[in-house]
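User: Can you model how 1-O-phosphono-alpha-D-glucopyranose sits in this protein?
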Amino acid sequence: MHNKIKKLTKAIIPVAGLGTRMLPATKAIPKELLPIYDRPIIEHVVQEAITAGITEIIFITRSGKEAIENHFDMNYELEHRLDKKGNQITLDSVKNIIPKGIKISSIRQHNALGLGHAILCAKHLINNEPFAVLLPDVMVVEDIPHPKNFSLSSMKKSWDETGVGQIMVQSIENKDTESYGIVDTNGEYPKPFSSIGIKKLVEKPSPVNSPSNLAVLGRYILPADIMDILENTLEGVGGEIQLTDALDKFLNYGELNAFLSTAKIFDCGNKKGFIGANLMFGMRDPEISDYLKDLFDTFNKNI
Ligand code: G1P
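Assistant: Here's the modeled complex, given as structure tokens:
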């Protein structure tokens, strides 16, 4: 790593959303604690950050979502009881969620003013260092589940080598541009698992005004300057302070790259993505996959 490139150790995970797209399931339970396969969504996302080499995780949270912090904390009574029963495998699964040396902290976002505002709430903890952002609605399931092949790990490697911020993208259908931040890469398309320069970013453009069909998909590695820009970013689309707008402003004097992920990406903030991610994990488990295949066969026969 070049001397001048600041080491990336911190990640911000915004968890202050109300989860309205998943009501009534999320009336009393934070959407980030809904399970994908055998653990809450948020645990998958935290593990993804740790696998990429992140050692400090900052949750941006709100009142009513304390259960997220509890999930990563000790539960003495539960651990004591499992220990007494000699239930070692289950005990390990609740005890060792966070490896030693990983710090987790949380900050409250008092006002729901948008993703950009949520990120800005962590400015004092970021302390002028680069940072990753992981949106927990987005589940990134890699084709080959080996840490070396993780998109975020590869994005971190690119940051370490170049000091250029990395934004994960994938192509989407043109009709869906209004749901995403879209990047303009000057008509070029990044090669799979590599990155190219971004010319412009637009938050949720209409299909006719969209500069491309490359959508920002919830994983970012950003230089510290973004915090200063966010402080001066006004409300954008939806009356919210948009991270995308701050990134676009940064391009006036800095560089950002679009990293094309080859992973299967699920939006677990809605039913379709949530069920899709659960099925994908189920199909990867040899003890469950035959059962699922039988189930699909039964459905097919009944249609
Ligand atoms: C946010 C971002 C958007 C991004 C999307 C998916 O939008 O503002 O740029 O494309 O996440 O990662 P939201 O889905 O919160 O409206």
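A couple of observations from the model: Residues 115, 135, 138, 180-181, 203, 215-218, 242-244 surround 1-O-phosphono-alpha-D-glucopyranose (CB under 6 Å). The chain has a mean pLDDT of 93.
User: Helpful, thanks.
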